[in-house]
Amino acid sequence: MSVTRFPQDFLWGGALAANQAEGGYREGGKGLTTVDMIPHGPSRMAVKLGQEKRFTLRGDEYYPSHDAIGFYHHYQEDIALMAEMGFSVFRTSIAWSRLYPKGDELTPNQEGIAFYRAVFEECRKYGIEPLVTLCHFDVPLHLVVEYGSWRNRQMVEFFTRYARTCFEAFDGLVKYWLTFNEINIMLHSPFSGAGLVFEEGEDQEQVKYQAAHHELIASALATRIAHEVNPRNQVGCMLAGGNFYPYSCKPEDVWAALQKERENLLFIDVQARGAYPSYAASLFRDKGIALVKEAGDDEILKHTVDFVSFSYYASRCASADMNAGNTSAANVVKSLRNPHIEVSEWGWGIDPLGLRITMNTLYDRYQKPLFLVENGLGAVDVPNEQGEIEDDYRIAYLREHIRAMGDAIADGIPLMGYTSWGCIDLVAASTGEMSKRYGFVYVDRDDAGKGTLARRRKKSFWWYRQVIASKGEDLA
Ligand code: BG6
């Protein structure tokens, strides 16, 4: 039987990201960001992957981030709903371009600061602890066009200035910070992940790992600044998690899975352990990568994070032949389809035990507290005749994952908290759809951007409220 053993001070809540929730893309002095250029529709993937340059908006396309779910104007109502569920933590991100519209200014946009102060004060009013990501899939567009984004070392200076501004401006309101959302995703989705676009014939692996090095330096410096500004600040890295299982016990498949694990964990190894791992040298050699480092970089990287945060939607599978057909997207990371688990309507695996396995792996490796900052089921919700949404499928998914989390805690793993993804329906990052819903709260908006934006509590809203009230004991 599963045992749930959540500590008394466990943080229960949910997560959003600025670019998928706020909208108001040109309001309050905000500048354009990468995600504002990613359309819904057939060009989406090419733009997200950095294969198609999109530096100007087109009149014939729809851009879901521009209005998203209007959190920019609805934040009081939304935070009140979170408070009603009993949240003690709310994860969101700051849109870098609200504070630095172009990204390379020397002083911040005060309107942007005022907006986030208001959001965080609203959280505090209800005793909700904000957990804030500095960069969640949005880079100011000007930095992409003028500097080539993270391929350029100057980004370290721009990012650390922005980070310092956040730590100082929101000191006393925010103490939990994440630097880069799902840092490993930049390898799979380079434009949305890190603002990278590629030239014809360019060595993309070289560009991506060099850009990642710059992010790692920026992340370590930001961590140091956070601690200087206020020693109570706690900073985490953020992994798009989910272990790779070997597709079979064939040694070649086991080796392939180990290689995939290393590719996934490389950046977290740096952020949590303070240096590139030993296998980095052979990985770079095999890929023909020559990292350009500056004197002092190794010292900088020694500023490790306080905790390891991660998202978990599904486990993954690898074999020696990853092109053997039968693939499934497990959060844009290529994976073979695991015949032993069910998949969601979008083909993402459903594997609660995989969460326990992932947590054990991460804790064995890092020995730092973990924080599960994204988890959930993207599903179509159809209101019934009374207009109610009976999302039992979502409840079933969350119940099993919360159980698995409890099992991992019983395994001896310190877990700081849980923020389920898209606690209020928002725009899907991969597809730009609204119909891929994760929330406890339904938002009246469709894939074409039509709808009243009215909020409505789903059945899962009442269920999650009970889970939180019972501190994870009542999952019925
Ligand atoms: C994570 C991201 O990759 O997965 C989120 O951090 C994203 O931004 C989430 O929304 C779920 O993916 P999707 O494509 O269903 O929105």
TrEMBL record:
One biological process term in Gene Ontology: carbohydrate catabolic process
GO annotation, cellular component aspect: cytosol
Active site per UniProt: E374
InterPro entries to which the protein is assigned, alphabetical: GH, GH_1_N_CS, Glyco_hydro_1, Glyco_hydro_1_AS
Signal peptide: none
GO molecular function ontology, one term from the record: beta-glucosidase activity
Domain of life: Bacteria
UniProt keywords, alphabetically: Glycosidase, Hydrolase
Family: Belongs to the glycosyl hydrolase 1 family.
Protein's recorded name: 6-phospho-beta-glucosidase
Organism expressing this protein natively: Aeromonas lusitana
